[in-house]
Amino acid sequence: MNRKITAAVVGTAVLALSACGNGAASTTSGGGVQATSAATTGSAKDLSSVCPKTVVMQQDWQPEAEHSAMYQLVGPGYTIDTAKKRVTGPLVAGGVDTGVKVEVRAGGPSVGFQPVPALMYLDKSILIGAVSSDAAISGSVKQPTTAVVAPLNKSPQILMWDPKTYPDAKTIADVAKTGAVVVTAGDIIPALLMSKGMITKKQIDTGYEGTPARFVGDPKILQQGFISAEPYIYEHEVSAWKKPIGSQLLADIGYNIYPEAFSVRTDDVTKQSACLKKLVPILQQAQIDYLANPSPVNQLIVELVQKYNTGWTYSEGVATYAAESMAKYQIIANDPATGSLGGFDEKRVQEILDTFSPILKQGGASIKPGLKPADLVTNEFIDKSIKQS
Prior knowledge:
Shape: globular
CATH class of the largest domain: Alpha Beta
Number of domains: 2
Distance between the termini: 24 Å
CATH topology of the largest domain: D-Maltodextrin-Binding Protein, domain 2
Order of helices and strands: EEEHEEEHEHEEHEHEHEHEEHHHHHH
Number of strands: 14
Number of helices: 13
Protein name: ABC-type nitrate/sulfonate/bicarbonate transport system substrate-binding protein
CATH superfamily of the largest domain: Periplasmic binding protein-like II
Keywords: Signal
Strand content: 15-25%
Helix content: 25-40%
């Protein structure tokens, strides 16, 4: 999950070649999701005749359990490129080798913090990108993308507080009304809170750097985090804290985006339709398969973090907690409108447009005139029979 939420314009970007230079790669023969058979020619899991030889997927941040649906596809014998921060292996679906490879690329500092839509238009080999709804709206003029699968049904973003400082607080609103400073890494969250009358301008601090130092040193603040990470990290891994935090999901108060939806360049909805018809149900099922047995993918994610060695840390404990919390808080869940894992609710997408378009415009984004839900999402390839039980 992209740890820095901003309302910046998604403009033309220049690929950070320094992050993609030549470097050593290591090969691992074990690990990954095991393949027990090869797909029968022409079957639903045979991608060899309809998809690229390597299905390239771009994430928006460094490896973590929220990205599990992509990493679930990486089969044994994968290769880790430690210079370019990507892993490549056979694309395996439910134990079946699909006949193509999958390459999952890390985002964030690995690509100079460039937005995923910009990367997708710079490098046309990228078929699938993890694009949150607000990023898709911001990129709608120059880098239009259309989401084809929602691996996460709602955002795991939270605001967190110290229960000792605010013993009676149950919600973000309870803490915000005290005048607490809201510390985030960007301006979308505070803009949303201001639009709802929950905070004033003087409470905004967009200087969050992603470390616990500020919260530990000033427990009166409200700080951004993730329900799938920070509660565990602060209680078990931050030596200067080592106690519970209080929190509430931002999804509860209107941050209703589809986070990191698996998206294609809008023209590819048609151009790659034969591939997407088979690939999308595989992506849907991959997220379900991960929750059923998260350990192999969690081990891969932790291995990638260690070998990429970017300064990002991610333990097996956090990964295990993330899987449990994403199920508990229904971050991974069926879409209520379609009843399927990965589907989209166009009414919800319209609400996202209504809420975030003004905020993004205020931040400088250029938004396509007349942008509508059908521009941003499609259920065309969703298999409605695939559900999380």
